Predict the structure.
Amino acid sequence: MDGAAVAFDEMLDPSGEVRPAYAGYHAWLERQQPEWLRRKNAETEGVFRRTGITFNVYGEDAAEERLIPFDMVPRIVSAAEWRRLSRGIEQRVRALNAFIHDLYHRQEIIRAGRVPERLFRDNAAWLPHMVGFTPPGGVYTHIVGIDLVRTGPDDFFVLEDNARTPSGVSYMLENRETMMAMFPELFTRVPVETVSDYPMRLARSLAACAPPRTEGKPVVAVLTPGIYNSAYYEHAFLADQMGAELVEGSDLRVIDGRVAMRTTGGYQPVDVLYRRVDDEYLDALTFNPNSVLGVPGIMDVYRSGGITIANAPGTGIADDKAVYSFMPEIVEFYTGEKPLLPNVETFRCADPDTLKYVLDNLAELVVKEVHGSGGYGMLVGPAASKRELAAFRAKLTARPENYIAQPTLALSTCPVFARKGLSPRHVDLRPYVLVSPNGIDITPGGLTRVALKKGSLVVNSSQGGGTKDTWVLKD
Amino acid sequence: MLGRTANGLFWMFRYLERAENTARLLDAGLRMALTRDLITAEEEWRSVIHASGQSRAYRAKHGTFTGIQVWNHILRDKDNAGSVLAMMRQVRTNARGVRNAISGELWGVVNESWMALDDKLTRPVTQGSVGEVIDMVRRAGTLAHGAMANSMLRDAGYHFARAGTFVERADNTARILDMKYYLLLPSLSYVGTPLDSGQWDQVLRSVSGQRAYRWLNAGQTDPRGIVQFLVLDERFPRSLAYSHSMLAEAVTALARIHGQEGDSHRLIADSTSKLAGLAVTQVFEQGLHEFLTEFTRCNAAIALAISNDYRFLR
C-alpha cells in the first residue's frame, strides 16, 4: 500500500517548508553538488563491507554475511521532542521492571484484577525458577529497546518493548561514525548530541549491577552464541568497545560456586554476564538439555548471588505482544501516573467479539503473532493479497489467542537518498535504555529503521529495511 | 585473555603464514617453469605440488602436472581444503572470532584482503593473472604484519600471534628444504661439482631468499652456504634459527606475562641453544633429512606445548 500520501513527513511540512529540526541539515544539503552526493552515497556500502558490519540471515548459508543498507540522510529529532520522549520512555521502563518483579513475587497486579492470570500462566517466557528471586540491584531489564513510531507532529506511539535482548545498538554507533567520517563539516554546523559514549555507559551500568559480594572492579563479559549468530558483529563490537571479554559457552564453566572463564592463565570468575543467548539455551541443566551455547549450572550460581545475568532470565514475560496490550494498565498500576507515551490501539483476538471485528476488518489491520518477532509471521492487511488474507483468516480462526491486531498506522516518513534524489520512506525509532540501581539512562539517539521500498511499512532488516543515523539536536 | 582467543590468534597467523609461503612456493615454481623445457617444467610443477603438501588431493583429480592445473588447484580448488583461498578464509574467520583481541586496523586489512582475493578467485586463474594473485596473497601478509606491528597492544595476544607466525614459518622452511635435500647429497662427496643453480635458485626463491643469499655469499652457490643460510643464519627472517629465536622471544614474553614457565618455554629454550651451538658440518654429518625431520618434530611439540600451557582448548 502507499501510505506516503497521508503520512507525516518529518522533514517537510504540507506546504513544502522545511521543519525547524531539519533546517540546518537542509541548508547544508542544498549547497551540495548532486553528483558529489551520489558519489558519497555509492561509497557507503564499501565502508560498511570493509569494517565488516554485517549480519547473518537465518536459513541462509552460514557463511553468508549481509549488510544492512545505510541511508545517508539523517533522521532528526528536536531537543524538545527528545525531552518528551525520554520522560515517557523512563516511565515505561520503570513500570516494566516493577511489573516483572511483581509477577515473580506477590503478583499484586493480578490480585488487583488489572491483568489476567493467563498472561504469564500460558507464556513460554515465564520462568518458574525466577519466582521469589530478586536479581542483584533489583534490575531485570538492564538494556531495553523501545520501538517508537510517529504519526503526527505530537503523536508518538510505542509499538513494541524489547525487554530481552534488544539488538541494533552497534548500528546506532557505526552509523554515526560513518556520517562523521563522510560529512565531517556537517557536525560543525548542526549541534548533535553524541552517542559514542554508549559503550562506556553500558559498561558502567552493568558494573553497577554486579552482585553485592563482588570485590574490586567487577569482571564483565559478553556471552555470544558464536561467529555464525546473526548479531555476532554486534556482540564482538560491544565487548571490544567496553573492554570486556567476548565469551562463548565453551569458555565458561562453574567452579567453586562461580561462573568462570577459561583464560590463558587459568579460570577467572565472571561477575556480570551480558548474555546475547536466549533463556532457553542459557543452562543445559535447567532448560534445554541439548544446549551447548550456555553454561551448565549457571542458574544455581545466579540464584545464590554469584553472578549477574543481563538481562535477567525470564524478562521475556514483559515483551510479549499480549502483555503489550496491557501496558497502559501496567504503567498506571506501578507508577500511579497516566502513560506519557501511548500504545498503539491493540485488539486481542483471544476475545470472541474482538476476533469477529478483526476478521471483518482484516484488510485494514496489521496482525501479529503474540510471540513473533523480526517482522515474521505478520500480516499487513492493506498490502496483502486475497490469498494471504485468506490464509491469515484461517490461522486466526484456528488459534485466535496467538494473535493481536492493530490499525495500520500511517508511519511518519523521512527522506532517503534515492536514485532520483530525495524520496520519503516510512521510519520507526528504537532508543536504547540502560537500567541500573543508579537510575535509568537513555542515550540521546537510537536506531532509525527505514522501509527502503517505496510505500512499505515493514522496517525490519530481515525484510528489506535499512537504517539511518539518528540525530537528537542539542538545545 | 581467553584460551579460545589465544588459540584463534595463534591459528589466524599460522594460516596467514602458510598461505603466504604457499604463494612464495608457487611464485618460485612459476619462475622455474618459464626457464625450462616442457618436460622439466612438468617435473617442477610436480615438486611444487609435493612441497605444498597437497599431492594426494591433486592426484585425486589430475593425471598430469601443468602449470595452470597446479596453480588453480593450489590457489582456489573447492575440493582442496588446503588451498590458498581456504587458508585465507581461515585467517579471516579466526580474525572475526578474535575481533576484540585485534586492532581495528588489523581487522580492516585482513577483511579487505579477504574480500579482494575471494572476488579474484571466483574465476579460474589464467597465465596472465597468476602473478597478480600471488602478489595479492603476499601483500595480504605484509599488510597484516604491518598493521599488527603498528597498531596492536603488546600484550599476550600479540605474542600468541607471533608464536603462530614463527611456528608455521619454521615448519614451512624446513619442509621446503627437505624437499630438495637429495640435491645436496651428491655434492657432499663431490665437493666442487657445480650445483644445478636453477634448482637452488628455486629453493631460495621459495623462501624469498635469493637476493639476500647472493648479497651475503657473493654469488657462491654451494650446499654448505645454502644450508648455513636457511638453517643457521639468524639474519635471514625465514631461517630456522631466526624463526626459533623469534618464537623463543614470544614464548618468553608469554611466560613473563603469565608469571610461569611451562613446557613450551623449556622446549624452545632447548631448540634455540641447540641451534646456537650447531655447525653446518654437524648438520651434514647427522644427515640433512634426518636433521630436518627431527627439527619439524620438535617444532610441532613446541606448538602443542603452547596450546597446552595456555589452555587453548577445553
